[in-house]
Design brief:
Length: 145
């Protein structure tokens, strides 16, 4: 699994002008599922996102995690992150999981996240979504499990 996490002061996702997920201070996580991923990968990704120390402490050092600040988590599926962009002028999606597997694992990640962190909001797998955010810092990282 690959995710881009962004520390945000706010983020939201809409589908056809209808708001489906919104958070204030927290993490927007764009998530891609690859062929070799499993439920264990989803659990590991969730743990890394929750415990990755990207929020400032009292000395403005990145020492606090999402878990410690109790911020919002917005999970948005984005299969394009799994693209192979090493050659040519068009991405190849060979590394990406099939639609069925991707949807199954994203849904597993969502249920796991909601069970362990109720402040989770979600986008919709396979939908044309509009995502808006205010990146704080900006602070953005790529995590791969």
């Amino acid at each position: 699994m690959i995710t881009i996490i962004q520390r945000v002061t706010q983020a939201q996702v809409s589908i056809e002008n209808q708001l489906v997920g919104k958070i204030e201070t927290g993490i927007l996580a764009l998530v891609a599922i690859e062929k070799a991923d499993s439920e264990k990968s989803a659990q590991r990704l969730f743990e890394r996102v929750m415990n990755y120390r990207i929020f400032p402490d009292s000395e403005q050092r990145m020492n606090l995690s999402l878990q410690s600040i109790q911020g919002g988590l917005l999970l948005v599926p984005q299969f394009t992150l799994a693209a192979d962009t090493n050659s040519g002028n068009r991405p190849s999606f060979t590394p990406a999981a099939t639609r069925e597997k991707g949807e199954q694992l994203f849904n597993y990640l969502v249920s796991y996240a909601l069970e362990h962190y109720p402040e989770t909001q979600i986008g919709q797998f396979g939908a044309n979504m509009q995502v808006s955010l205010t990146n704080d810092g900006p602070v953005t990282f790529t995590l791969k499990v």
